[in-house]
Structure formats: structure tokens, C-alpha cells
Design brief:
The chain is mainly alpha-helical. It contains 6 helices and no strands.
Length: about 110
């Protein structure tokens, strides 16, 4: 199935805000270092990646992850100095299941969409 991102970067920002506020009703309790990552990725518009790679996707199969989401996740892993994709995937999985320390959650939420 072809990837499609109808909302672009604005949809990512809206999704992040709604998910973020579910976990952190008082966002000002987070440390400044966390906010540095949040602000940096907030303005990083990777939506052109979706249109560039549109032709690389097949019309068959399950709905894929958006290329911009996968790239954002990879860039965030590099920024956090996680060099192993296996470790990064485990961190994301644990965060989604609620097993991860809450302090890492806001940063890892940056890579979730949708």
C-alpha cells in the first residue's frame, strides 16, 4: 500500500501535542535539556521525504510507516547517541508499553506518528 501523509508536518505537530499532553499535563515540569530536543524536532519538517519516496512503495501489502516518521525516529536515535537500531527499537517498544522511565518519554514521543 502506498504511503500517504495528508496532513504533512502540521499533522505530526498536532499528534505530538495531543499525545504529549496525555502523558504530561504540566509540561513545564520537564528539564530544559528535554525541551531542547522537543523544540529542535518540532521545527524539523521532514514531510518532503514522503513525496520523494512515494514511488518506492508498492500498492500491495499493509499500510506502511511514513518515510518522514522513520527518518525522524532515526535522527532522534542519532541525536540521543543510540547507535544500535536493535536497542532503539527496544526502547520505542518499551516506551509504548509504559515500561520506560517517564523522563525519556517526551523525547521518544517525538518519533511516534501515527
Amino acid at each position: 500500500m502506498l504511503s500517504c501523509n495528508p496532513g504533512g508536518h502540521t499533522a505530526y505537530q498536532d499528534t505530538f501535542v495531543s499525545d504529549f499532553l496525555k502523558f504530561y499535563p504540566d509540561p513545564f515540569a520537564l528539564p530544559n535539556s528535554t525541551w531542547d530536543y522537543i523544540v529542535q524536532f518540532w521545527y524539523l519538517d521532514l514531510s518532503p521525504t514522503d513525496s520523494i519516496l512515494q514511488d518506492c512503495y508498492s500498492v500491495f501489502g499493509p499500510e506502511p510507516r511514513l518515510p518522514s516518521c522513520m527518518l525522524r525516529s532515526y535522527l532522534l536515535a542519532l541525536k540521543l547517541k543510540v547507535t544500535s537500531i536493535t536497542v532503539w527499537c527496544r526502547m520505542l517498544r518499551e516506551t509504548r508499553k509504559g515500561k520506560r522511565h517517564p523522563a525519556t518519554l517526551p523525547v521518544l514521543l517525538l518519533s511516534f506518528f501515527p
